[in-house]
Design brief:
By secondary structure, the protein is an alpha/beta fold. It has one domain: Rossmann fold (3-Layer(aba) Sandwich). It contains eleven helices and five strands, in the order αβαβαβαβααααβααα. A five-stranded parallel beta sheet has the order 2-3-1-4-5, sandwiched between helices. α4 (about 100-110) runs parallel beside α8. The two termini are about 40 Å apart.
């Protein structure tokens, strides 16, 4: 963003905060997933933009498995005046765990924009499995056995068409930006400009923070304190079985969003 525009926005924000008591806002956009597809990185990058206020807690999970929080609690996570407000809760696209998110969201935020980051569905599933090892939810030695069950929760999260379907039915595809995490990783400047245009803030803004990439999963430790290191690898046979299982959903997803995701393994 040019300095003059940045200065004007800061002066406007300072003026609002000095004359009015700001008691929070509701999101104008939400990153709805998918888990282990770069949602934390995108949340950090968006936080840099002077026209954007991201939630102080990355994952509010306000619409996922409701816990009795009210709108005042939700508003309290957006702490400064801004043009656009956003949060990132990948649990919103875990339909197998809660199938009511899209409708609950629409009842409160009928005009919100949605961002759905996706990743090679098998690579994402492996990273998700490692995350569960880190959380002591599964033993790392169960990797092959775990994926013998083709309907496990990790693979269900990689069924992108099925996961996105309720949001398309509720909001329409024109209010949803679908982006491959591989693009966010490899073409950061253009990806962020696309996101900024979608949420209606200055698309020319850039930050040195956009050059920082974190490989969080590779630094995670297992339940005994050991570094998880490189992700486990499927045998060719098991990889083929998983790919065949996911392919019908992923092909529908490609057709729905009009993107080929040519480098994916499914």
């Amino acid at each position: 963003m040019p300095n003059s525009l940045l200065d004007r926005f800061r002066r406007r924000s300072d003026s609002r905060s000095s004359t009015d008591e700001f008691d929070g806002a509701l999101p104008t956009f939400i990153i709805i997933g998918a888990m282990k597809s770069g949602t934390s990185a995108l949340h950090r990058y968006l936080r840099e933009h002077p026209q954007v206020c991201m939630s102080t807690r990355k994952e509010t999970n306000f619409f996922f498995r409701p816990k009795g929080h009210d709108l005042a609690w939700y508003r309290s996570h957006f702490t400064k005046p801004a043009d656009q407000y956003g949060e990132a809760s990948p649990n919103y696209t875990k339909r197998h765990m809660d199938d009511g998110v899209a409708q609950r969201m629409y009842d409160v935020l009928p005009d919100v924009r949605l961002i759905y980051l996706v990743r090679d569905p098998i690579e994402r599933a492996v990273s998700h499995f490692q995350h569960n090892v880190y959380k002591s939810r599964v033993d790392p030695d169960y990797f092959e056995v775990y994926f013998d069950d083709l309907d496990n929760q990790v693979l269900q999260t990689s069924r992108y068409h099925w996961q996105l379907e309720p949001f398309v039915e509720t909001y329409g595809l024109d209010r949803i930006l679908v982006m491959a995490s591989e693009k966010l990783r490899d073409d950061r400047a253009e990806s962020m400009a696309q996101v900024f245009r979608f949420i209606d803030v200055d698309p020319e803004f850039s930050s040195p923070a956009f050059d920082v990439e974190s490989h969080v999963t590779s630094l995670m430790k297992g339940p005994d304190g050991e570094l998880l290191g490189r992700p486990p690898v499927f045998s060719a046979q098991q990889h083929g079985m998983i790919a065949d299982h996911l392919r019908p959903d992923i092909d529908r997803f490609r057709a729905l969003v009009g993107q080929d995701f040519a480098n994916w393994s499914v």
